[in-house]
Amino acid sequence: MRSSALDRVDALALLRELAGLSHAALLAHPEAALDEASLRALEQAAARLRAGEPLAYVLGWREFWGLRLSVGPEVLVPRPETELLVEFALDRLDAEAAADVLDLGTGSGAIAIAVAHERAHARVQAVDVSAEALRIARDNARRLLAADRPGGALRWHHGDWMRALPSEDQAFDLILSNPPYVAEGDEHLPSLRFEPRLALVGSRGADDGLGDIRELVSQAAPRLRAGAWLALEHGYDQAEGVRALLRAAGLREAHSLRDLAGIERVTAARAPD
Ligand SMILES: C[S@@+](CC[C@H](N)C(=O)[O-])C[C@H]1O[C@@H](n2cnc3c(N)ncnc32)[C@H](O)[C@@H]1O
Question: Residues 202, 167: one domain?
Fold first, then answer.
């Protein structure tokens, strides 16, 4: 049964953000009264949370890889497990060398911005089919990345996976993606109703949730440089299917990485040398 009480962590976050009260201030002055404006803002925010809206949308931000990303209902709320994909990328990118990196389905820009933040020399490009998502990602990058990073400003492309790129010839040293992978009839979809369906199910709905991953792998595999990696996040029961798709696309060393809950969450493979 759904409780009308707010989660304690959410309530503390609201007090901190909307009333400017830190946890320490609450402990020191539990009797302190809230002003009218703060009370109204808190009541409105609490009503949105009770209706099931994610805290990140109510606050307007979510922290990812230690970076405060602006988010709204136009983009998926970045998840902690996606940091596994960032770790995979950083392990393969030299801190001092240039490399061409692509983030497919960038949403808020979470993956592209985290990689660009940690690897100043990487030339990072990102694609999304949602123009609203790209606007949010661009603003996040402008706010969070140094204007004079050696790899240059991030480049954003609007369109369908690799077809969004301006050149058919450019190849990459690393392609990353957290694509839509929720199956059409998945039982979790109702609880995710505030997030964009395009980000969750995509536009190539399939019973196994792999519709967009199939297309993305077939488009992206030929664009990897020799020995370059393609790494994808996917659902808890899709690792075997994704490994098979990567092998069928001619890639090698297909393997999956487990998240903190022990679930195979990211699968990667590389182009032949
Ligand atoms: C699961 S979200 C991931 C967002 C972000 N990378 C993250 O990890 O938080 C998938 C993203 O793929 C985008 N997308 C869906 N179909 C696409 C397509 N055919 N081409 C490009 N992007 C697409 C969605 O708009 C959404 O932003």
Answer: yes
Pocket perturbation via mutation, ligand 1, pick of 70, 130, 136 by most ligand atoms within 8 A of CB: 130
User: Which ligand 1 atom is at minimum distance from the Cα of 107?
Assistant: 27
12 and 98 in a single domain? The answer is: no
Asked if residue 38 and residue 138 are part of one domain, the reply reads no
Domain assignment of residue 93, yes or no: yes
| C-alpha 203 to ligand 1 mean position (Å) | 10
In tens digits, the chain (273 residues) has pLDDT values of: 344 567 878 888 888 888 888 888 888 887 888 888 888 988 999 999 999 999 999 999 999 999 999 999 999 999 999 999 999 999 999 999 999 999 999 999 999 999 999 999 999 999 999 999 999 999 999 999 999 999 999 999 999 999 999 999 999 999 999 999 999 889 999 999 999 999 999 999 778 999 999 999 999 999 999 999 999 999 999 999 999 999 999 999 999 999 999 999 999 999 999
Cβ atoms of 201 and 126 within 8 Å: the answer is no
Ligand 1 centroid to Cα of residue 269, in Å, is: 20
Same domain? For 152 and 219 the reply is yes
Residue 123 belongs to some domain of the structure:
yes
How many angstroms separate the alpha carbon of residue 179 from the centre of ligand 1?
A: 5
CA 105, CA 161: separation in Å to the nearest integer? 7
Q: How far is the CA of 178 from the centre of ligand 1 (A)?
A: 7
How far apart, in whole angstroms, are the C-alpha atoms of residue 215 and residue 210?
9
Domain range for 213: 74-270
Determine if the pTM surpasses 0.85. Answer: yes
55 touches ligand 1 (CB under 6 Å): no
194 and 233 housed in the same domain: yes
Query: Is 69 within a domain?
Result: no
Question: For residue 160, which atom of ligand 1 is closest to its CA?
Answer: 20
136 and 174 fall within a common domain: yes
Say yes or no: 21 and 153 in one domain. no
